[in-house]
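Good morning C.,

I know you're traveling, so I'll keep this short. The sequence:
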Amino acid sequence: VQLQASGGGLVQAGASLRLSCVSSRRTFTNNAVGWFRRAPGKERESVASISWNGGSKYYSDSVRGRFTISRNNAENRVYLQMNNLKPEDTAVYYCAAARRSMATMSDSEYPYWGQGTLVTVSS
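The tokens, ready to paste straight into the viewer:
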């Protein structure tokens, strides 16, 4: 599974962005998909995860209520809608596919990773 994330950019605090993740070579419709981020000088952290059918979704405490993960299996895409962005959301965002179908926030469960997309939020 090869993944590609897109949709990042430079926005002001309070703005919204929608990230998109697509599988370029194989479908990931049976896989859980997660979004992760790495801020400058910090370790990678889990942001959100969605089960294969969208029935289960998990969020980190830092984004819950502001970010929404969703998927469209017909289009083989997973989205991360980010609202009310804050400067502390600045990071490179990655999508990843798990071998399992159920959602998980543990990055060790994700063997398939895409390249990141940079999100910069100015104050």
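Safe travels,
E.
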